[in-house]
Amino acid sequence: VELSATLNGQAVTGIGEAVPAAFYGETPDTVVAFYEQLLADKALVAINPLNRQRLTDVLDTYPGHYAAKAG
Question: What pLDDT, on a 0 to 100 scale, did the predictor assign at position 1?
């Protein structure tokens, strides 16, 4: 999955490898929708990507979306 967004006037592109599981009702579309929701909520703004605990804490506020969180 490749997503692009503009944050603080700067274009940012991210690439991830999510493997949606039908068992959990996940599809490539639900993965993209989850990432778009994170962007809309500005949930990851100002989080150091190397601070895995903080990142996990934020992602845990969104139930489900296992493939998207792992990818």
Answer: 66
